[in-house]
From TrEMBL:
<dbReference type="GO" id="GO:0055085">
    <property type="term" value="P:transmembrane transport"/>
</dbReference>
<protein>
    <submittedName>
        <fullName>Extracellular solute-binding protein, family 7</fullName>
    </submittedName>
</protein>
<dbReference type="GO" id="GO:0030246">
    <property type="term" value="F:carbohydrate binding"/>
</dbReference>
<dbReference type="GO" id="GO:0030288">
    <property type="term" value="C:outer membrane-bounded periplasmic space"/>
</dbReference>
<dbReference type="Pfam" id="PF03480">
    <property type="entry name" value="DctP"/>
</dbReference>
<dbReference type="InterPro" id="IPR004682">
    <property type="entry name" value="TRAP_DctP"/>
</dbReference>
<keyword id="KW-0732">Signal</keyword>
<dbReference type="InterPro" id="IPR018389">
    <property type="entry name" value="DctP_fam"/>
</dbReference>
<dbReference type="InterPro" id="IPR038404">
    <property type="entry name" value="TRAP_DctP_sf"/>
</dbReference>
Length: 329
């Protein structure tokens, strides 16, 4: 009898041991793409997002992060997500506006007075309206990430708005950015992000525009040591999930769809904190490397904003109303 009981105990223990071992393996593995490198705020926030998802699904879903554009450029990743080839990523408004034209309004130059103003807008009704409106193209918006303010940097000094005239400036593959540069009297050239350093070195372009962390992270400060801090664009980024991936998540547990959104929003708050830290670090590193910073005075800022009036005049009635609401927020 004792021998039989011992055998039963061994079988039961073995059964539950196997069950415990099986739980170590996720039921679903999703792929998340980013065009930045490890250590960059958006990538570190994505890793934090992955840890939240793993913890809160009890290991049932794993999110694997692929940085350094290993899964393709932003445009390539976006196209793959539409067809379910990649599950999640974060995109700039410049890329997203090609799929969601209504985002054009949020890209207007000099739209916000500062970072705090932008987050009052995006954390409120206007931000929710745009975030929840990004549907119907095979991808869904989950949360906002910070991407700082974009300014100009060049190989030669910029004293004011007149110094930009005649220069060839690299911009994202985005028509709004091209038009902004051209209204300032410069020539806009759309070049992939990864080719900017080479283009600067080979004198194919006179400068580019981006946020300060990207400027330092990609060593552009070594080739273009003059930074004109006009902060013409504040373009937040959006964490997206493909509709196909969302269906797979729901198949495991319908409540996980909202859980993913909650985790994304938490990672967004974490990313903002990382961004502020990275901006300070990038500024210090740029100074140490010999970068010359020029901050436009009030008269120059007025001239810059005045040059953008044609863009604002093209707005429809609804867009004008939104811009007014943003200004009053």
């Amino acid at each position: 009898m004792k021998k039989v009981l011992l055998i039963v105990v061994i079988i039961v223990v073995g059964f539950f041991s196997c069950r415990k071992e099986e739980s170590k393996y996720p039921e679903l593995v999703l792929r998340y793409a980013d065009n930045q490198s490890s250590g960059y705020p958006t990538v570190e926030a994505a890793k934090y997002l992955a840890s939240l998802i793993k913890e809160r699904t009890g290991g049932r879903i794993e999110l694997r992060i692929y940085p350094d554009s290993v899964l393709g450029s932003e445009i390539d990743v976006m196209k793959q997500m539409v067809y379910g080839g990649i599950d999640m990523s974060r995109f700039s408004l410049g890329t997203l506006s090609q799929f969601f034209p209504e985002l054009w309004t949020l890209q207007l130059p000099y739209l916000y007075s500062d970072s705090e103003h932008m987050w009052r807008v995006l954390d409120g009704e206007i931000g929710d309206m745009y975030l929840h409106g990004m549907v119907g193209k095979g991808i869904v918006g989950l949360a906002w990430y910070d991407a700082g303010a974009r300014s100009f940097y060049t190989r030669t000094p910029i004293a004011n708005i007149n110094s930009l005239k005649g220069l060839t400036i690299r911009v994202q593959e985005n028509d709004m950015m091209s038009r902004t540069i051209e209204l300032l009297g410069a020539k806009a050239v759309q070049i992939p992000y990864g080719d900017v350093y080479s283009a600067l070195q080979k004198l194919r372009i006179d400068g580019a525009e981006n946020n300060l962390p990207s400027y330092v992270f990609m060593d552009h400060n070594q080739a273009a040591p003059y930074f004109y801090q006009d902060e013409h664009f504040r373009l937040p980024e959006v964490v997206m999930i493909s509709v196909d991936a969302q269906k797979k998540v729901a198949a495991i547990d319908p409540s996980y769809v909202e859980l993913f959104a909650e985790c994304a929003r938490e990672s967004g708050l974490y990313e903002r904190k990382l961004w502020l830290e990275e901006e300070k670090r990038a500024f210090d590193e740029a100074l140490q490397s010999g970068v010359t910073f020029t901050v436009p005075d009030e008269d120059d800022l007025l001239a810059l904003r005045k040059a953008m009036e044609p863009l604002y005049q093209e707005l429809g009635e609804r867009e004008r109303e939104i811009v007014e609401r943003i200004g009053n927020t």
